[in-house]
Design goal:
Layout (H helix, E strand, L loop, with lengths): L1 H11 L11 H56 L9 H23 L6 H28 L3 H39 L1
């Protein structure tokens, strides 16, 4: 029964059993030759792709270098996360305020460095270095603690201690100057 269906199908379909037109073989060979020449041109194009290979490798190297440098700068920004300014905008302002105030007082202290006050100024600078070392430890603690409030308060306290130290030293220098002026007046 299946064979009958297939036979009927072939009978209904009109297959062209005629001879191909003249020159058919020649046209077929020309098309075949054209395809071969086209594929040869593509093969020559693969040589041009070999020119692109070094350029692509340079681009890949540049991309890798960019990622390395981005990682380096990202690592530096990670290091800055232990800073008081990274906690919040208010803490950033607080840090800027204290830093500017300390810098101003430090410049005043260095301006007062005279033969009679050298020992006091050097001692104050040594104390400031110790406080700076302590502040760096607090920065590490802040990074490790996940911005613990106690560490933040300790950092602010460190700034206040520096300012108090500078203020006390400047006051002592003023007292020394005033005592020196009084003794000079009494001497005259």
């Amino acid at each position: 029964m299946k064979n009958d269906n297939i036979n009927e199908l072939f009978k209904k379909l009109d297959f062209d059993n005629k001879e191909p037109a003249t020159g058919h073989k020649q046209r077929f060979l020309e098309k075949l030759e054209e395809q071969n020449s086209h594929s040869k041109n593509l093969a020559k194009g693969s040589n041009s792709s070999s020119i692109w290979a070094p350029m692509l490798s340079v681009a890949a190297i540049l991309a890798i270098a960019f990622m390395v440098f981005a990682g380096f700068f990202g690592e530096n920004s990670y290091k800055n996360q232990g800073d008081l300014a990274s906690v919040s905008p208010q803490m950033k302002e607080t840090k800027q305020f204290y830093t500017q105030l300390i810098e101003t007082k430090l410049q005043n202290l260095k301006a007062e460095n005279a033969p009679g006050t050298e020992a006091i100024v050097e001692d104050a600078l040594t104390q400031l270095e110790k406080l700076e070392t302590e502040y760096k430890k607090l920065q590490k603690d802040l990074r490790n603690s996940g911005q613990d409030e106690r560490v933040i308060y300790a950092m602010i306290s460190n700034f206040q201690q520096r300012i108090d130290l500078l203020k006390q030293v400047l006051d002592q220098i003023e007292n020394i100057k005033s005592l020196k002026n009084k003794s000079d007046e009494n001497y005259i």
